[in-house]
Every structure is written in structure tokens, then in C-alpha cells.
Please model this.
Amino acid sequence: MRIATWNVNSVRTRLDQVSVWLAAEAPEVLCLQETKVADALFPHAAFEALGYRAVISGQKAYNGVAILSRLPMADVRVGFDALLPDDPAAVELGEQKRVISASIDGLRVLNLYVPNGSSLTSEKYPYKLAWLACLQRYLQAQEAEGEPLAMVGDFNIALESRDIHDPGRLEGGIMASDPERRALRAALGERLRDVFRVFEPDSGHWSWWDYRTGAWDMDRGWRIDHIYLCDQLLACATGCVIHKAVRGNDQPSDHAPVVAHLAWPPESAEGEDDDW
DNA sequence: ATGACTAGCACGGCTAGA
Model:
């Protein structure tokens, strides 16, 4: 199974590019962020023509997440409050459509669009920290269910210096501040690992390049789109790749797709009692 | 220090992104 994540910065504006990429790569699952469209206007037909069903949580103009899958999806959950119905913050944070999950082939795919935060002095910054604190509670509730977890999305956080093109200038600022990093690490706990770093220790690998200041031409990017796996899925991982070339398209999203390759479901051992 | 680009909304110039 291949699970992909891509912040498309408007699914309608990027529909042709997403369709071309899906037709070429055909991952089993593609998680989208920043769809920027109300649910009634989501372009289901274009994806169905390629063999994908979509489950969505969108809103007009801002935010919005979707899971596209070639495999059946079950037990779809929208928002933090789906698992935290008595948590006031979870209910309030649900106003912005940033969280959706589905059970696919025996694992839980959780697709997130973490708030950007804008700047350390913006009121959006404490919102981001509160959102991450809620994510931690949400993940604790999810873990209690015992379903293997793949958590993907646009995290709007570079966890380490090697994830930023110019850490000397950018570290400590938005997307690279200690409180953001601590909040995300607390949510990950000991359970979830960034699968990209299992296969690639070096810096110089980015998933987002600013539209401005020639960031793409100078290859000045950040790695803020991540795929986190629980131990059971991590043991099945065979690779994780950033599809950088997509950022070089005409009228691209500012993010590139990231794809994790999993040998899932695991093949049963020789002589196991499959036919009982 | 600031702004650069892009998209949405709605048709002028904002908000928001990261």
C-alpha cells in the first residue's frame, strides 16, 4: 500500500495536476489539504473516473481536507470531536476543517492540516499550540482503540534544523519555534515516527517552497509535510519519497506530494492457518 | 525591517497562507 499526502492549495485550481499525478502514480490513498471548497462543490466525479472515492471535510475558501482511496473506506471521522465529544476545545476547533480519518485495509489513515500560526506574535500562534494540545488528546483516544495508525498531512512545523534550508536565520521563528516543536513531539510521544527520516538522514529534502522570493529556483524549502507511522506500520515501511518534480509544474501548489510505501497488509507466514 | 507570490471572494483589495 502506498499512502500519499499533498497540500494542493485549492483542489479545484489544481484538479488537472492532481488527476495527472494520480493517473501516473496510482497510490492506494491520497490525502489532500487546503482543498478550499465547500463539500457540495467538491469535484468527486474527476476522482471517481480515476478509480478513487473521496471522503471530505471542507469549507468555503479556507482549509479543507479529503482522503481519496482506491480501497474501501470505513468508519470515517471528521474533526477532533469525533473521538473527543466531551472536550470543549475539540468541539470549538472543529469550526476549521482540518481533521479527517478513515479505516482502510485494517489501518487508520488520519489526515491533518495543522494551523500555520502566522507569526509568533499573532493570535493564530496560541491557536496553533492549542490545536496541537488537542491533537495529543485525540491521539491518546485513538491509541486506546488499538487500530494501527498512519498520520499524514501538512504539519506546518519543521521538527529539526535539517528540515529547513536556512536554520541559522529561520530557527526559532514560526514553524520552527520550540513551543511548536515541543507540542508536536508531545503529541507523537514514543508511538509515532516520521517515516521519511527512517530512510533519509540528510538535509536538503524539502516538501514546501514559498511562492515568493524565488524560493523554488534557489531550492530554499522546508520539510513540513510528514507521514508518521506507529511501530507496527513502520516495520512494514519500504520507503518514503518526496515527489519534488511536481513543484516545478506550471501553476503549481507550493507543496510537493510525499508518498510512503508500505508492505501492508503483511504477508502471512509460510504454513500459517490462512484457510481456517 | 518589509515584501515578495498565489488563491478565494467577488470584481477591489482585502484575508490567509508559511
In short: Residues 124-145 of chain A form the longest helix (22 residues). Chain A has one domain: 2-275.
